[in-house]
Every structure is written in structure tokens, then in C-alpha cells.
Design a protein that fits this description.
The complex is a heterodimer of chains A (117) and B (108).
Chain A lengths: L3 E4 L2 E4 L5 E7 L5 E8 L3 E8 L6 E2 L6 E3 L9 E3 L8 E8 L12 E2 L3 E5 L1
Parallel strand pairs in A: 2-11
Antiparallel strand pairs in A: 1-3, 3-8, 4-5, 4-9, 5-6, 7-8, 9-10, 9-11
Chain B lengths: L3 E4 L2 E5 L4 E7 L7 E6 L6 E6 L5 E4 L2 E5 L3 E6 L8 E9 L2 E4 L3 E6 L1
Parallel strand pairs in B: 2-11
Antiparallel strand pairs in B: 1-3, 3-8, 4-5, 4-9, 6-7, 7-8, 9-10, 9-11
């Protein structure tokens, strides 16, 4: 049982470098999400996608971009990393709210720990 | 503006000592309040969904309740394996917005 797979698990990155965090799901969920988790700030939504081909901004989208070319993949790109983007990043998927099938259950990956120096 | 506020930030209990965690929300027209559990180094795991005031859900030693302004997660006779961070979240449009969580530590 795979569920949500994130890669890399951990990465140290120099400021100014470009980085893509990968996320793949095998549950055929329409909706996918990217959150960052920081001590004292909790989980904050970066970007989301209700279905392949569409994306939306969350609470903290600046400095990040996403794409949703197909149902299974939802990569998160940092075009030019800055130290404030040091965080643990979680990808999640679910049935979409627009389909009426979402019960609030998001399935999360194990997280990607990113350190920007 | 905070949509979801959880208290306390951290809670230490003796094994068997029952207590409650609080989640207050300010979203108008609530379309779902959710509880998750998160273990260290792991992603959150879904526990419950509540939709309307008066609704209750139970799972083992956990019971979630909902009023018009807040939700409580009651933990009855907790065990050390109940130690985790408990997250409350609400639906806002097509997004799920989380509170900062309560870190629960159950001492044996």
C-alpha cells in the first residue's frame, strides 16, 4: 500500500537554488494539497488542486509554484529558495469537495524536510 | 484573522487521567470540523468529521463534540500511546485550514 509518496525525504539547499518537491498518489483522488509545518505556526496551506489541470492559492503561496498535469502527481517548486522556506513540507490528497465526496479526510505523506542555508 | 484556535498548546497527563482539548473556530457557515492526530516525524492521520452542533463521534478513548463556536476532544483514561499532537481543522471553501495543535503527553 503506497498512498502518498513524497521525495526527497530530506534536503539541504543553498539559498537561491531552485528545488522541486515531488508528490505522487495512487488513490485516484481528485484533490491534492501542499502544506508547510513550522514550530509554533502549525500546518499552513501553500497551494491546492481540486482536479487535474487546476490549481489554487492557499494561505502562504508566495515563493512557491505548483502544477497538476495529471491526477497522480502534484510537484511543488521553489524557484529561488530563501532561508524562511526552511520547513517540513507535507503533501496530501483527498476526494474533492466539489464532487461532494469529501468527508474531510485528507491522506498525508510522510513529509519532506527542507533546510535552506 | 485566526480561523481555528486550539488550547492548550501542550498538556501533560498521568495515565488514566481524563481531560479535554479545545478548538474554537470563527468560520461562518461551518461545513465541517475535523480532528487529526500527528505522531512525531509523521504526517497527520484523520480521526473525525463533525458537521453540526450537538454531533458527537467516538473512537476508542477519544470522543469529539461540537457546539456552534467550539469543539472538544475528550480523552478518557488515556494511555501512553495516546501521546501525540492533536490537530483541529475546518473547511473554508475547497480548503482545509488547520489550527496550531495541542501536544499531548501521557505519562506512564
Amino acid at each position: 500500500i503506497a498512498g502518498i509518496t513524497q521525495a526527497p525525504t530530506s534536503q539541504i539547499l543553498a539559498a537561491g537554488r531552485r528545488m522541486t518537491l515531488r508528490c505522487t498518489q495512487d488513490m485516484r483522488h481528485n484533490a491534492m494539497y501542499w502544506y508547510r509545518q513550522d514550530l509554533g505556526l502549525g500546518l499552513r496551506l501553500i497551494h491546492y488542486s481540486n482536479t487535474a489541470g487546476t490549481t489554487g492559492k492557499g494561505e502562504v503561496p508566495d515563493g512557491y509554484s505548483v502544477s497538476r498535469a495529471n491526477t497522480d502527481d502534484f510537484p511543488l517548486t521553489l524557484a529561488s529558495a530563501v532561508p524562511s522556506q526552511t520547513s517540513v513540507y507535507f503533501c496530501a490528497s483527498s476526494d474533492s469537495f466539489t464532487s461532494g465526496a469529501n468527508t474531510g479526510e485528507l491522506f498525508f505523506g510522510e513529509g519532506s524536510r527542507l533546510t535552506v542555508l | 484573522e485566526d480561523q481555528v484556535t486550539q488550547s492548550p498548546e501542550a498538556l501533560r497527563l498521568q495515565e488514566g487521567e481524563s481531560s479535554s482539548l479545545n478548538c474554537s473556530y470563527t468560520v461562518s457557515g461551518l461545513r465541517g470540523l475535523f480532528w487529526y492526530r500527528q505522531d512525531p516525524g509523521k504526517g497527520p492521520e484523520f480521526l473525525f468529521t463533525l458537521y453540526s452542533a450537538g454531533e458527537e463521534k467516538e473512537k476508542e478513548r477519544l470522543k469529539a463534540t461540537l457546539t456552534k463556536k467550539e469543539s472538544f476532544l475528550h480523552i478518557t483514561a488515556p494511555k501512553p500511546e495516546d501521546s501525540a499532537t492533536y490537530l483541529c481543522a475546518v473547511r473554508r471553501d475547497d480548503k482545509i485550514i488547520f489550527g496550531k495543535g495541542t501536544r499531548l503527553h501521557i505519562l506512564p
